[in-house]
Amino acid sequence: MVPDRSSWCKDKLRNEEEEEEEESVNPTEVKMSQIVMPCHSNHRQELSVGELLKWMDCSACLSAERHAGCPCVTASIDDIHFEHTISVGQVVNIKAKVNRAFNTSMEVGIEVSCEDLFSDRHWRICHAYATFVTQRTNTGKKVILKPIVPHTEKEQVEYSVAAERRRVRMVHDDIIKDLLSHGSNLQVDNAVAAEKTKVESVELVLPPHANHQVNTFGGQIMAWMVNVATISASRLCQAHPTLRTIDMFTFRGPSQVGDRLLLRAIVNNAFKNSIEVGVRAEAHQEEGPNRHINSAFMIFEVLDDHRKPCMLPRIRPEPLEGGRRFQEAIARKKIRLDRKYIISRKQGEVPLSVPWNPRNQVYLSYNNVSALKMLAARNNWRLSSEKDKVRLYTLEQKSMLSIRVESEVDVPAHRAFCLLAEMSNRPSWDTHYQKCELIHQVDEDDFLYRVVTPSVHQGILQDFILLACKRKPCGSGDPYVIALRSVSLPTHPPTEGYNRGEVLCAGFTILETKNNMSLISYYNQASPEVLPYISTDIAGLSSSFYHIFCSCSQYLTRNRLQSASEVQTGQYQATNTDGPTCQTEADSLSVALHSTPL
């Protein structure tokens, strides 16, 4: 399917802007261009998704190995949403580069676009993140990866947010389990039996299917899985379905030449306009047990002549395991919808806040932290004023104004992190802080607060319902992060006598500098409720930001040796700082946000 001309123009302009930004070529970047031939296509003369996955996996692997300097294997590929199909004769352009290297694993970003040679039009197809791991040496020793050094603003954003994406991957299975615990059994009448959609196919791994490490090429396994999934979906809808989304490939073990790959697929659930197919790949030798090597979940649609999704028949799950798969498919769909809703919210929408509940907490937390990291990574901040090394920066983006206030303090970063995260101590240094109520401690890193601040409207206080998230550094050179955003809670609706304010993105970053000092930076994307507090500072008519930050610096310096609990109870005597208490570090996050004079 070809997008309209407006989206062509937008994507082309975006690509040109990105090209202008990148002054130097990333040493891990790999580019691949392929013209789509009839042998690559399906019955509709469109590029087979399986073929595209091969090219994507190959490009990402080459990028990973260029950075690692040794053989690497695919560990997983995150969700992939295919925005458009690609026709025979068009060109596929793939760009892959390492976003961040951890210990023995790395995240590789993959961008896929399409090019029409006759009209010189370009448009985006998909964007994916793959995780690769290094193989051990012949002596069994692990290969430790060197760190990635980001150069451009875009690379800095991807580098910073990669740590948060990694965090989400690690808890993905727990999210599914939690959603299942709140699920209910549904009785489906007049539905197609899931047994009719079962597909089982065997592939013999031959030398052409192997990669340069003599293992079965991961892209080939994915292509075989797409094939059986498509057949399974077709048996339900009795039509040719279009693969729209892949919910994650997880490689659990290797396969070699000579293996027999047993591929099983079945429709887990059918919704109004989409079908989820579960696929499992197992490998075995001529003799020996089956080894589970890969699993994935694929979402298909059936399009009519106008390229609109058709209504689909419902599915009746198999007994026992079928019921579990049926409910898990509902959980995965909820995750996709929550994530899409959270990420799609814009500054101009009212309300800005997203309803919070335990099931979408992980993605709200991810969005909260990543938004602050992306704001901090912007490179076009403008210095508005400076007084005694306290600097106020502004950033204008279309109709949005953001501020950054920063200064260096003689306090170790981990202590500043703990102290700033103690919201209950805010009154000792911020005259604009009035009240804070802990609503719920989600876990040791995330908190929900109701914060009360003075309003610019005389006699009317402002309150905010905030999600506060704290993060310690993931690696050397990373800052401590305290991030804030507004959420809505049915238990805490707007009340009479208070003007309910909202915050899109705010918080602190705390970076360790030389001589055990810290660079403290406060950020705020100025919503209408916040702008009146800071407008006079930006215009140079006031220096309240300076006085508040000086008070903050004095608070940190005075209590640099106290534990967080002693500061909270007003005991300001020097004590041993081994193992500082950071259980409520997210507290200051909320307060920081709405000590808006900062």
Structure write-up:
The chain is α+β, with helices and mostly antiparallel strands and 598 residues long. Helices cover 29% and strands 30% of the residues. It is built from 11 helices and 25 strands. The strands form 3 sheets. Strands 1, 2, 3, 4, 5, 6, 8, 9, 10, 11, 12 and 13 form a 12-stranded antiparallel sheet that branches. Strands 15, 16, 17, 18, 19, 20, 21, 22, 23, 24 and 25 form an 11-stranded mixed sheet that branches. α2 packs antiparallel against α4 (218-237), α3 runs antiparallel to α5 and α3 (153-181) packs antiparallel against α6 (361-377). The longest helix is centred in the first third of the chain and has 29 residues, at 153-181. It is globular and about 70 Å long. The model is unreliable at 5-10, 345-350 and 569-598 (pLDDT under 50). Residues 1-26 are annotated as: Disordered. It is an enzyme of class 3 (hydrolase).
Topology:
Blueprint: H1 5-21, E1 30-35, H2 49-68, E2 72-77, E3 80-81, E4 91-101, E5 105-116, E6 121-134, H3 153-181, E7 192-193, E8 199-204, H4 218-237, E9 242-246, E10 249-251, E11 260-270, E12 275-284, E13 291-301, E14 315-316, H5 321-344, E15 354-355, H6 361-377, E16 382-387, E17 390-397, E18 400-409, H7 413-420, E19 435-441, E20 446-453, E21 461-471, E22 480-488, E23 498-500, E24 506-512, E25 518-525, H8 531-538, H9 544-558, H10 564-568, H11 586-594
Parallel strand pairs: 7-14, 15-22, 21-23
Antiparallel strand pairs: 1-4, 2-6, 2-10, 3-9, 4-5, 5-6, 8-11, 9-13, 10-13, 11-12, 12-13, 16-17, 17-18, 18-25, 19-20, 20-21, 21-22, 22-24, 24-25
Helix pairs in contact: 2-4, 3-5, 3-6
